[in-house]
Amino acid sequence: MDGAYFRVHHFARQLASPFPLLAAAAARTRRIEIGTAVIDMRYENPYYMAEDAGAADLIAGGRLQLGISRGSPEQVIDGWRYFGHQPRDGEDDAAMGRRHAKEFLDLLRGKGFAQPNPHPMFPNPPGLLRLEPYSEGLRNRIWWGAATNATAVWAARLGMNMQSSTLKFDETGEPFHIQQAAQIRAFRQAWKEAGHSRDPRVSVSRSIFALVDDRDRTYFGRGRQEHDQIGFLDNTRAIFGRGYAAEPDVLIEQLKKDEAIAAADTLLLTVPNQLGVAYNVHVLETILTTVAPGLGWR
Fold first, then answer.
1. Which are the contacts of 197, defined by CB distance < 8 A and separation ≥ 6?
2. pLDDT tens per residue, range 230-249
3. Residue 284 and residue 267: Cα distance in Å, rounded?
4. What are the φ/ψ torsions at residue 252 (nearest 5 degrees)?
5. CB atoms inside a 10 Å sphere around CB 210
């Protein structure tokens, strides 16, 4: 594997504070990327988050890949209010999340902005002070979780990489992977027009299971999620991408036809954590050894 990315949800019986886990994983590993998919910026104080992210990235030696977004529907109504956040006049919660994201990005540039105390506890460097610890290069490893073509373009203009998950708003009525591939093209075109000096990265998420033993067939061999599904997200029509479960040779041929996987450079595999560590090791190892090489993974 090239990396491990963690989901983040508040008020749910799962991970809600990613930076302690990211730092712990960073301290125990040396090669893999460690990231999130995604941190809901409606809940975040950009200043505190910039300090946490800088520390975790330094512990990781520059391997942090932070996926952030305006967030998805959560377990409670307007949960960000309990964290002390309120939209400004004329904003909704999505706009507030994007504002927090822009503030976070600005802080990661490492430019001084705070007036130093003339009688500090510790000696200060000259000029205005920035947040510490500062990790150079982290600004280029921030990803935006985009659910629409418009937010993909917005992220590209700001110089963020893009994550596109297993759902997006249904903007054309076409199959999910076709719409997602178009979203990626819009992102890359906007990136080019913005004139950024580096190449962007794009990830897509998929549920993929190779059926190689009786456990796999019991859990995933019943033909579930073989087609896209339509639902509603924030009262807007959304399309949810199909899952893949088949024998390895069949999977390879199916995945080769997925236009979004072909357009992206990074594939995030969603794993069923409720089935335990041992089974997930099996799931990942099977994909890496029987499927990924057939798709060109090194």
1. none
2. 988 778 899 999 999 999 99
3. 13
4. -60, -45
5. 26
Which residue type sits at 69?
A: S
Looking at residue 195, its amino acid is G
What is the identity of the amino acid at 211?
L
Report the topology of domain 3-207+265-274. TIM Barrel (3.20.20)
Angstrom CA distances, 251 to 203, 215, 295, stand at: 19, 17, 10
Centre a 10 Å sphere on the Cβ of residue 30 and count the other Cβ atoms it contains. Answer: 8
Give the confidence band of 162 by pLDDT, cuts at 50, 70, 90: very high
Per-domain boundaries in the chain: 3-207+265-274
**Structure confidence at residue 224 as a pLDDT band (50, 70, 90):** low
Predicted TM-score (pTM) of the model is 0.95
Per-residue H/E/C for the chain: CCEEEECCCCCCCCCCCHHHHHHHHHHHCCCCEEEEEEEEHHHCCHHHHHHHHHHHHHHHCCCEEEEEECCCCCCCCCHHHHHCCCCCCCCCHHHHHHHHHHHHHHHCCCCCCECCCCCCCCCCCCCCECCCCCCCCHHHHEEEECCCHHHHHHHHHCCCEEEECCEEECCCCCCHHHHHHHHHHHHHHHHHHHCCCCCCCEEEEECEEECCCHHHHHHHCCCCCCCCEEEEECCEEEEECCCEEECHHHHHHHHHCCHHHHHCCEEEECCCHHHCHHHHHHHHHHHHHHHHHHHCCC
CA–CA distance, 178 with 261 (Å, rounded to integer): 10
Query: Is residue 40 pLDDT above 70, yes or no?
Result: yes
Q: Find where tokens 């921030």 sit.
A: 142
Which residue carries 């506890």 as its tokens?
A: 121
Distance CA 149, CA 22 (A): 30
Q: How far apart are CA 292 and CA 298, in angstroms?
A: 8
